[in-house]
């Protein structure tokens, strides 16, 4: 156990040094991949970590996310990297966890409790007959008082300006004292660099040192994927049961409570099916076939799409409410299930209408991240409806929905990170410049990887009459040279940035852009 603690603490220390070497005044790119390889290596060396198939899958997923940062270097790929890292760490130290949501929370908890984890591991270090345990016994007596003093000092500083002035002076003098000592022994050492190293040390320690409390993992183990009929006695009432009883009086205590809930469900879904049938009929007749834009169609498409997606989410919530418990086992619930499945089919038709609306929006106004986001949300709604159907048909629990949807969402996140969306958007919009209005301001706001494409299409960066969602004209410069000057400034900024970082910030997209403009590092 002592050797294990020594190994992990040494790994955290080396990780802190590696962190400050890789990321000090650098951009996120190749350095993230190197850092991830280090974390993966230490995790698989750690004998306390079980090398299960699940861990290997999430480790490969994280490695793919790190490679995508180097290849695509987009905001989405960086976000995917962080999410995959937290999931990998969560599953590595809590292998019985089954959902990505719990793994994410476990990783956050592990990061927050870094001081406690470090103290526990440090107390196990021994060199011969000498060990640090007595020292940390003393520290634990002053740890809480110090935290309390810091907390209330901050409160008092916020409440009293004079107190805040004295507190700031004291802290400044203490910081200056330590800085003078540091500069006396190490003249060229930067305080900012030391803080950066400390942050890397804490971060690496939080990723490698497992939290000793497994309460979260144990709590999730109690969750079941298959629904079980609960026969509740008069003395066994849940919090939800008591809340509903307040509003329903003795309705829940009657023997016909389940039948009453069934009748309410049938009436509700008959009404909802009729309501949605009317909406779908209108959409099919006016939107699916022979749609002709008229009036403020942009606002209609935009607002209508958002509302429909929200309604689909609410539809799934209504289904989950009615099939949350014993109604799943009611012997006469077949008509209700048929109504629910019919409503799911109608919601699927509604999603098709969302796709068509967004398609028209893209056809007339071009691609943007938000319009792509609408398509992604529509796909997620289809997946949600499919899993809700499985929940009703197979009598599954809400936990099952979280588990399945979480895994699918993460897989889709990795899949969408494979695409370089900025380049895709610019290429599509410029190729359709004779059909859609070119929003030059939007195109010039995208990442540097699009600069070569914009430079090749300078003639298309011109003023285009554009209107907002409510039909009002957006004022834009009418001189085409304005956009070309903006592009030249962007190229200049890229050159300055590219030359200011080392090989640690290398990524394929920046390299391609630099090659196009003939830029090389000095």
TrEMBL record:
Record-annotated membrane-spanning stretches: 7-24, 30-50, 62-91, 97-118, 138-159, 194-212, 262-284, 304-323, 335-356, 372-392, 404-426
UniProt keyword annotation of Transmembrane helix present: yes
Highest taxon listed in the record's lineage: Bacteria
A Pfam family per the record: DUF4153
Keyword Acyltransferase: no
Keyword terms, alphabetized: Membrane, Transmembrane, Transmembrane helix
InterPro entries tied to this protein: DUF4153
UniProt protein name: DUF4173 domain-containing protein
Organismal lineage: Bacteria, Pseudomonadati, Bacteroidota, Sphingobacteriia, Sphingobacteriales
């Amino acid at each position: 156990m002592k050797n294990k603690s020594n190994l992990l603490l040494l790994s955290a220390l080396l990780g802190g040094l590696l962190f400050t070497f890789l990321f000090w005044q650098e951009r996120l790119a190749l350095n993230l991949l190197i850092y991830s390889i280090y974390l993966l290596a230490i995790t698989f060396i750690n004998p306390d970590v079980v090398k299960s198939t699940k861990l290997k899958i999430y480790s490969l997923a994280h490695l793919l996310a790190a490679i995508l940062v180097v290849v695509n270097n987009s905001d989405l790929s960086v976000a995917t990297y962080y999410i995959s890292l937290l999931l990998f760490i969560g599953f590595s130290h809590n292998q019985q966890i089954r959902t990505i949501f719990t793994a994410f929370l476990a990783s956050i908890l592990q990061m927050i409790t870094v001081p406690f984890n470090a103290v526990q591991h440090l107390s196990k270090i021994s060199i011969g007959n000498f060990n640090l345990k007595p020292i940390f016994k003393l520290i634990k007596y002053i740890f809480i008082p110090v935290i309390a003093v810091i907390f209330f000092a901050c409160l008092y500083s916020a409440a009293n300006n004079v107190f805040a002035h004295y507190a700031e002076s004291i802290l400044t003098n203490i910081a200056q004292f330590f800085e003078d000592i540091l500069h006396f022994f190490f003249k060229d050492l930067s305080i900012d660099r030391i803080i950066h190293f400390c942050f890397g040390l804490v971060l690496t320690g939080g990723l490698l040192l497992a939290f000793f409390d497994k309460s979260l993992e144990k709590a999730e183990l109690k969750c079941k994927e298959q629904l079980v009929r609960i026969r509740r006695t008069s003395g066994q009432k849940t919090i939800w049961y008591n809340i509903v009883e307040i509003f329903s009086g003795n309705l829940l205590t009657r023997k016909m409570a389940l039948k009453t809930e069934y009748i309410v469900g049938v009436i509700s879904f008959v009404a909802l099916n009729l309501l949605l049938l009317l909406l779908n009929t209108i959409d099919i007749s006016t939107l699916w076939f022979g749609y002709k834009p008229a009036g403020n169609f942009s606002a209609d498409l935009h607002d209508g799409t958002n509302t429909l997606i929200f309604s689909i989410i609410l539809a799934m919530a209504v289904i989950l409410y009615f099939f949350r418990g014993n109604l799943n086992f009611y012997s006469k619930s077949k008509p209700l299930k048929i109504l629910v499945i019919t409503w799911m089919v109608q919601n699927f038709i509604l999603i098709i209408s969302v796709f068509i609306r967004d398609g028209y929006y893209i056809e007339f106004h071009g691609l943007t991240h938000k319009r792509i986001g609408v398509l992604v949300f529509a796909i997620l709604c289809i997946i949600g409806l499919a899993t809700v159907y499985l929940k009703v048909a197979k009598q599954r629990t809400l936990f099952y929905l979280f588990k399945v949807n979480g895994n699918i969402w993460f897989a889709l996140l990795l899949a969408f990170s494979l695409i370089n969306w900025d380049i895709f958007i610019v290429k599509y919009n410029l190729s359709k410049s004779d059909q859609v209005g070119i929003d030059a301001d939007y195109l010039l706001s995208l990442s540097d990887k699009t600069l070569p494409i914009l430079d090749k299409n300078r003639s298309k960066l011109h003023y285009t009459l554009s209107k907002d969602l409510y039909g009002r004209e957006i004022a834009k410069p009418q001189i085409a040279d304005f956009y070309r000057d903006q592009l030249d400034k962007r190229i200049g900024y890229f050159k300055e940035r590219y030359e200011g970082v080392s090989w640690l910030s290398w990524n394929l997209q920046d390299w391609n852009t630099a090659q196009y403009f003939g830029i090389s590092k000095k």
